[in-house]
Design goal:
- The protein contains no helices and eleven strands.
- It has 195 residues and is mainly β.
- The protein is globular.
Length: 195
């Protein structure tokens, strides 16, 4: 039996610090996964979607003009969606060059492939919406959580809520993700805290 307090103090020096409010918006470009239907059902398990993105100030509205490749990668590794109700779940990873990766899990609340039924106030043709994003009206409460894999020992533990839209938008100045092109733009709004 250990003496009182013996063997327990080793964790005190690596304890996470006081949480600090943190938020960031990712704007980027990439590919939207293709449907893989389950037999004759309405269920699809789309192939992975992957986007290269830059970090912007929280609340930035992403567009065809400011979405470009960056050092962050947002990848939806696994998802399941009903193509009739347009609802489902997603799981993925956010990779950053100088901080621990973060896993994310959330609900898909709008899924419009191959034609976007939702065109928002900024003329973005939204094909996919998930997490806490409400650009296209969801039929139930949106869910989206993210959490870094480690990082507390170095003050880089970032966790909170996220929302994602995958869209195309015609532009006179940039053609990175024009409507009907093979490339899509993404906006990810991350709201949370770091410690």
């Amino acid at each position: 039996m250990l003496a009182a307090g013996a063997g327990y103090g080793a964790y005190a020096d690596s304890a996470a610090g006081k949480p600090v409010d943190s938020s960031v918006t990712l704007c980027g470009v990439g590919t939207l996964g293709q449907d893989v239907m389950e037999g004759s059902s309405d269920q699809s398990h789309p192939t992975p979607s992957s986007f290269s993105a830059k970090e912007f100030t929280a609340g930035t509205d992403c567009s065809n003009d400011n979405s470009t490749t960056g050092s962050d990668t947002w990848t939806v590794d696994h998802s399941n969606v009903n193509v009739v109700t347009e609802r489902g779940t997603e799981h993925g990873i956010w990779q950053r060059p100088s901080a621990p990766p973060a896993g994310f899990n959330g609900h898909i609340t709008d899924y419009d492939r191959p034609t976007a039924e939702c065109v928002d106030s900024q003329d973005r043709h939204v094909y996919y919406q998930s997490g806490k994003e409400t650009d296209c009206a969801p039929s139930y409460g949106p869910v989206g959580n993210f959490n870094t894999h480690g990082g507390a020992a170095t003050g880089q533990h970032f966790r909170g809520n996220y929302g994602t839209i995958i869209f195309q938008q015609n532009s006179n100045t940039s053609h990175a993700c024009d409507v009907d092109s093979d490339t899509y733009c993404i906006q990810v709004d991350l709201v949370g805290q770091t410690n």
